[in-house]
Write a structure and sequence with these properties.
The complex is a heterodimer of chains A (111) and B (116). Chain A is mostly beta strands and 111 residues long. Chain A contains no helices and eleven strands. Classes of the chains: A mainly beta (111), B mainly beta (116).
Chain lengths: 111, 116
Amino acid sequence: KQEVTQIPAALSVPEGENLVLNCSFTDSAIYNLQWFRQDPGKGLTSLLLIQSSQREQTSGRLNASLDKSSGRSTLYIAASQPGDSATYLCAVKFGNEKLTFGTGTRLTIIP
Amino acid sequence: DTAVSQTPKYLVTQMGNDKSIKCEQNLGHDTMYWYKQDSKKFLKIMFSYNNKELIINETVPNRFSPKSPDKAHLNLHINSLELGDSAVYFCASSQRWASGNTGELFFGEGSRLTVL
């Protein structure tokens, strides 16, 4: 069964610290992996998309890595800010074309 | 603004009623999706259309009927609403390539359905 797991479910970090969010998936035959953030009561905002042939993508203070062989992706956030507080979701597009979401990590940046 | 837009944003209705949610994207994408986010915030795909053709149909009660009049629109009609249908429904779109892979997925703001 194709599953996506995000641990921990919640994380609190003091402002200014660097942090890493984790995503693991059960099937290495993937098309791509995408990281999103969701603010309370809002839709999902795409952060980074990594194709299966890529190992990482960067956008500003965000860096996402992909290791298909171990079934893992990480989202690195540098110099965290209170505005980074949100739920971060990892989604994997498996070979059967279905995009499967993890349960998310709720991040709180403490001022 | 280029975006995925869905209406209504909020919908409160009685059990047994029929309701529709509309979605439109002006991103020029050829693939659209409906996702359901339950009370535990878990997102699960319901349907996907590529160029008006149904390509993903998850195990969803047949009270849910999607309709895609063109590749920029994907509507969701729900018959005989039940309490368990209460959730946030998200529309999304992306571009699909010949390989079956897709580009970045863009989401609408969601439609919160409450069934009383």
